[in-house]
Design a protein that fits this description.
Layout lengths: L3 H10 L3 E3 L6 H5 L12 E4 L3 H14 L3 E4 L15 E4 L6 E4 L4 E5 L4 H9 L3 E2 L10 H6 L7 H4 L6 E7 L5 E5 L4 H7 L8 E8 L1 E2 L3 E10 L3 H14 L4 E9 L14 E9 L3 H12 L6 E2 L2 E4 H6 L10 E4 L2 E3 L4 H11 L8 E6 L21 E9 L5 H15 L19 H5 L3 H11 L16
Parallel strand pairs: 2-4, 3-4
Antiparallel strand pairs: 1-2, 5-6, 6-10, 7-11, 8-9, 8-10, 12-14, 12-15, 12-16, 13-14, 13-19, 17-20, 18-20, 19-20
Helix pairs in contact: 8-11, 11-12
Bound molecules: flavin-adenine dinucleotide (FAD).
């Protein structure tokens, strides 16, 4: 039980706000993206500045409280909220400052991808990050972070110049190639294991304003043939191109003929990072193949492309995802994907095949904590459903996907797509786990930051 006077003292020390269960803003503040997660922290510290973060970390440590750290609240496993304990919520620390001459962005620890894209695109620049604008920059980047630009410019983490961090001891540190370089190594893929990131500096790249972007849809009966063609196209595609395949149920969108609404389809979501006319040309062999039922790809402002999937992935549904890495897609894997897609448990569920590789794989596996530098595709069956009554069917389908795909996959899983709270850390960190455990022992020996895909401090 928390001492009232001690809690009040924390409240008076914050420039931000301290929310308790009786506060009208509490329920909204504890809700995260995945509606399966329903946890009730004792306190939520909505920090306004770094001093608030230091006070909150000191408080959690000294009071022996469970501590969760929240950036954008998108984590599938719901690691940014806890039962009892304290949540450090950085959503108010979301400023993005861009220096267009130096091509550097300074980004607050609670910024969302939309904040980052808007500020950088205003200067004709961009950072490779994720594909849904409501995702938090912090959680995404600390786990690696990939999106449409990553085959050209690498992971979000590969574009980090520095991270400002509050450690478990309440110390403020800066990590970069020159300052605390081992910590900087660990922050580029090691997740939230080492402290609270209050600011990031990213290298920026010229882009847009328009890019070539959008989906082409195919019937499920054609999916095996189209996926095989996609695999071959992806193998030799220029790094400007990034195409994600999605086995899904056709939504009732005007771009899809009505006869196909509600049927199982394959979507190839295509992106080209250069001149849109060139993008159209380069992607034409993919889009002209087979018998597409709809094609909505074309020139689009980059910021619109970054928001196009927001509604599909809106907050509020129950979610369970199970990622696995593939170096390449074998014919057997393609057949398994199509068979599993025929049994999607709900219209919102899908099997997403994210193309990675390119510049991501030009970095050595041990150069940063993110180890998966030979992965070609991240395959993620994702169940999404509305009611708790659907839990059993959804989870059974996810497990069936996992069982069917595991023998065909290459081992390894992307840390940021894992729904399990524990048990997949070695898949996530691979051969870098032991080095991360040594770093953890140095910066967080008592494992204060343990609500994450956790690295246990080496004894
Ligand atoms: C709809 C959707 C789309 C996605 N798309 C992509 C994508 O395209 N590419 C991709 O790579 N990933 C993607 N992801 C996965 C995403 O990277 C993870 O969910 C990530 O955890 C989100 O970060 P967040 O800050 O929103 O998460 P939160 O839930 O706020 O935090 C997750 C964890 O990150 C750590 N953390 C968060 N903020 C901080 C901080 N400031 N300091 C220290 N630790 C912190 C903590 O350990 C926390 O438990 C997507 C997720 C969703 C739900």
């Amino acid at each position: 039980m928390l001492d009232l006077a001690v809690t009040e003292d924390l409240g008076t020390r914050l420039r931000g706000t301290l929310l308790a269960p009786d506060d009208p803003a509490y329920d909204e503040a504890r809700a995260v993206w995945n509606a399966m997660i329903d946890r009730r922290p004792a306190l939520i510290a909505r920090c306004a500045e770094v001093a608030d973060v230091v006070a909150a970390v000191d408080f959690a440590r000294d009071q022996g409280l469970t501590l969760a750290v929240r950036g954008g609240g998108h984590n599938i496993a719901g690691t940014s909220v806890c039962d009892g304990g304290l949540v450090i919520d950085l959503s108010a620390m979301n400023a993005v400052e861009v220096d267009p001459r130096a091509r550097v962005a300074r980004v607050g620890g609670g910024a969302l991808l939309g904040d980052l894209d808007r500020a950088t695109q205003a200067q004709g620049l961009a950072v490779p990050a994720g594909v849904v604008s409501t995702t938090g920059v912090a959680g995404l980047t600390l786990g690696g972070g990939f999106g449409w630009l990553s085959r050209k410019h690498g992971l979000a983490a590969d574009n980090l110049l520095s991270v400002e961090l509050v450690t478990a001891a309440g110390e403020r540190l800066r990590a970069s190639a020159k300052e605390n370089p081992e910590l900087f190594w660990g922050l580029r893929g090691g997740g939230g294991n080492f402290g609270v990131a209050t600011a990031f500096e990213f290298r920026l790249h010229p882009l847009g304003p328009e890019v070539f972007f959008g989906p082409t849809f195919y019937r499920l009966e054609d999916a095996a043939e189209v996926l095989a063609h996609y695999r071959d196209f992806a193998h030799s595609a220029p790094h400007d191109c990034c195409v994600w395949a999605d086995l899904m149920t056709a939504p009732p969108l005007p771009i899809i003929p009505e006869a196909h609404h509600g049927t199982k389809v394959l979507s190839l979501m295509q992106f080209h990072a250069g001149d849109p006319r060139q993008g159209e040309e380069v992607l034409a062999p993919l889009r002209r193949f087979g018998r597409p039922i709809a094609d909505a790809a074309g020139p689009l402002p980059y910021t619109s492309a970054q928001g196009l999937l927001d509604e599909t992935y809106a907050k509020g549904l129950r979610n369970y995802w199970t990622p696995q890495n593939f170096k390449a897609l074998s014919d057997a894997a393609i057949d398994a994907l199509v068979t599993l897609a025929a049994r999607l448990p709900t219209p919102q569920s899908d099997i997403l095949v994210s193309q990675v590789g390119g510049a991501i794989n030009e970095v050595a596996s041990e150069a940063s904590a993110y180890p998966h530098r030979d992965t070609g595709f991240v395959v993620t069956p994702g169940a999404r459903w509305a009611e708790p009554a659907g839990d059993d069917a959804a989870l059974a389908w996810v497990q069936a996907c996992r069982d069917a795909l595991a023998p065909l996959a290459d081992g390894g899983a992307y840390v940021n797509f894992i729904a399990e709270r524990e048990g997949r850390e070695h898949e996530a960190y691979g051969g870098n786990y032991e080095r991360l455990a040594a770093l953890k022992a140095r910066y967080d020996p008592d494992n204060l930051f343990r609500l994450n895909q956790n690295v246990r401090p080496r004894a």
